[in-house]
Amino acid sequence: MKKTNYSSMLQSITAVLSILLLSITSVESLLAKNIQVNVAASGGLDTTLRHRKARPSSRGDATAIDGSNSKLQLLVQERHVVLENSIVRVNLSNPEGLITAIQYKDIDGNLLDHGSAEDSRGYWDVVWGEPRKNGTMDKLRTTTFKVIVQNENQIEVSFTRIWDTSLKGKVMPVNVDKRYIMLKDSSGFYTYAIFDRLKGWPELSIGEARIAFKLSEEKFHHMTITDARQREMPTYQDRQKGQPLAYPEAVLLTDPVNPAQKGEVDDKYQYSTENKDTGVHGWISVNPPIGLWMIAASNEFRAGGPNKQDLTSHTGPISLAMFISSHYSGEDLAPKFENGEPWNKVFGPVFVYVNSAPEAKKDVFTTLWEDAKVQLAKEIKSWPYSFPASDDFPASDQRGTVTGSLLVRDRYVNKRDIAGKSAYVGLAPPGDVGSWQRECKGYQFWTTANADGSFSIQNVRAGEYNLFAWVPGFIGDFKHSTMIKISPGSKQNLGKLVYEPPRAGPTVWEIGFPDRSAAEFRVPEPNKKFMNKLYANREDWFRQYGTWERYSEMYPTRDLVYTVGVSQYQRDWFYAHVPRKLGNKSVPTTWSIVFEIKKILPSGTYKLRLALASATYAELQVRVNDQKAAKPLFTTGRIGKDNAIARHGIHGLYWLYTVDVPGILLRPGQNTIFLTQTRTSSAFYGFMYDYIRLEGPPSNVA
Ligand SMILES: *[C@@H]1O[C@H](CO)[C@@H](O)[C@H](O)[C@H]1NC(C)=O
Ligand SMILES: *[C@@H]1O[C@H](CO)[C@@H](O)[C@H](O)[C@H]1NC(C)=O
Ligand SMILES: *[C@@H]1O[C@H](CO)[C@@H](O)[C@H](O)[C@H]1NC(C)=O
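A: This is the predicted complex of the input protein with 2-acetamido-2-deoxy-beta-D-glucopyranose.
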C-alpha cells in the first residue's frame, strides 16, 4: 500500500463534526460578496448555496469584476460532502462516497436521476466472489472520509474501506480508496480508485468493476458514442413496457414514448466499443442545452488490451466507465487471486465532464459533441495527470518510454521485410505469446505503429513487461524475446524488431483478411422486425439484433459451400458459424471449402491456418475429403465464452489453430475441407472466423 501521507491525515475531517464550511475562497472575498460563512448551524444549508443563483454564471463575467469568482470549495456535512467550483457542484454521500448529485452552473436540479435512491445515481461498483462461485454486487460503500488535498487550485477527497478477516465472506477482500478531485475552473471532476489486497488475504475473483451513472431522465435523451453512433434513445420505461427477446438485454419496443421508435430493438450491447475507442461518450440534453461525458485519457487501467470490447452508454439513461468485465471475452477476463496473493491497482482517473451550448445555437448535438472531443484531446495532452495525490498514481517523471520499429518477415509474401504498418504494439505484464488479451490484473500500454512500423509507447509505469504486437494483414502474435524493465524516466529504443508470422509454405488459397474481426464477411441484411435504425448502413449490420438467425433462412436445408476461385468471401462466407434451426431443434452445421489442386505432393504436409475472431461454447471439427469420417482430422474441442454473437460484436477473443493436412489426404483435382460446428444447445453457440489459409508444403522461396 502507499506510504501514509501524514500531512493529509492531519487534514482529516471526521464525519461526526456538524457542518463545517471549508472554503478556499478567502473569507474576505466571501464577505466582499456579502455571503456569510455558516459554520455553526447543524443540518442547515450552507449559505453559498442560497446565493448560488445570484452569482454570475460565467467565469468571464466574474473575473472581469475582481478575479476572485473562480472559487473552489469543500463543504463537509454530517452525511454529505460537497465539492464545488464556479461551474460544477458534486454531492457525495458521507462516508459511503456515492455520487448523489451533479449540478451545473445555475441549472436547476440534479443532472443525475434524482428519483433514484441516493445509492443508485452515481457509484463505483464491483461484482466479486470466490472463484467458481456466483458473484455479489457491491457498490463499494466506504466507511471513512478524509480530505487529502485542499488548496486554492485543487480539492481531493478520499473515501476508504479497510478489510480485515472479520469481514471474510461478507466483504470483498480488498482495501478500497475512492478519490474525487475537483480543480479550480474545471468543468467537471475526476475520480479514481485504488484497490489494494494484502498478502495472506483469501482467494477472490472480480467479475466486473466500473463506474455507473444513472442520469436525469427528464434531461438526457440523446446519446453519443462516436461521430456516427448517436441517436435519440428510448426511455427506461419504454424498455420496461417492451418485449424481451432471446436475451433479456434485447427488447423490442412495443409502445415507446416516441412513436417513431416503435418496432425497434434496444440493447445496451449495440453500443459497445473497443477499449482503444472509448475515450469519450455521453449524453446530451436539449433543454437545457448541456452534455455530460465520461472521458478517459488513457486505457492503461482497463483489462484486456486495446481490442477488448465493453459497454459505454445505454438506455436508462446510463453512462459507464468499464474497467473489468467478462463482456466479449468470458470469465478469463475476471481477475482471480489465489489465497494470499497481494494486488494493488489504480483504476482511472476518469474525467466526468459537463458542457453547455448557447440556447440559440441550432445544432446542440454537434456543438456539444465536438466540444467533448476537444476536451478529450486536452485530457490526453495532460496525461499522465500531475495532480492526483495518491503515491499509487505515478506522475510523468515516474514513467518511461519505449520506442522501436516493427517489421514483418514473410518470405512467401515479400522477399524483403515489410513495415509493420498500423500494428498494435503494447507492453503488458509478462506472459506467453498473446497473453495480453486475457490479462486483467496489471496495466497495459498500447499504441499503433506508423506506416513505416515505427512506434513509441509513452507514459509507461515502472515495472517489468513483455512487448507484444499484432499486425493487421498477418496472422498470429508477436512477443519480443527480452523482458522490458521500465524505471522512472527511462527511455529505451529497441531498434528493429522482426515478427515472423506462422508460415510454412506458399498460399494455396485464403479466405478473409487477417485482422481479428469477421466484419469483412457476409453480415446479412437485418430483419425489418428487429431494426435499430441507427445501424441501417451495411458496415454496422453486425450490431443489429437477430443477424445470426438469418443463417437458417439463407441455408434452410444445405449448409454453406465456398468454392475457391468462384465464391467471394464478402458475399458467400457467413459471418458466424452457428447451428441451424430445424423445427424446434438446433442441428450441427458443416461448411465446405471446395478447391482444386492440380499436383499434390503426397509426402508433403499442407497446413490449414484457422484464425478465429470469436468462439462461444463451440467445437470446430475439421475433415478432409470425407465428411462422414468418424474421427475428424482435427478438433478444437469445446472452446470460448465470449458470447460475441449474442452481444452483436464482430469479434471476441482471438484464436489461432494450425492443422497439419498430410498430402495423402488430398488428391489431384477437386478437394473439400469440411468445417463442422458440433455444439447446438443454444442458437448463440458458434464461431466467427477471422481468416483461413491453406499452405502448400515448403517451397524453396524461403
Ligand atoms: C447533498 O445532498 C443531500 C441529499 O440529497 C442534501 O440533503 C444536501 O443538502 C446536499 N448538499 C448540498 C450542499 O447540496
Ligand atoms: C449461480 O447463478 C446461476 C444463474 O443465475 C444459478 O443457476 C445457480 O444456481 C447459482 N449458483 C449458486 C451456487 O448460487
Ligand atoms: C415444437 O415443440 C412444440 C412444444 O414442445 C410442439 O407442440 C410442436 O409440435 C413441435 N414442433 C415440431 C415441428 O417439432
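The chain has three domains: 73-382, 396-499, 507-695. Residues 1-67 have pLDDT under 50 and may be disordered.
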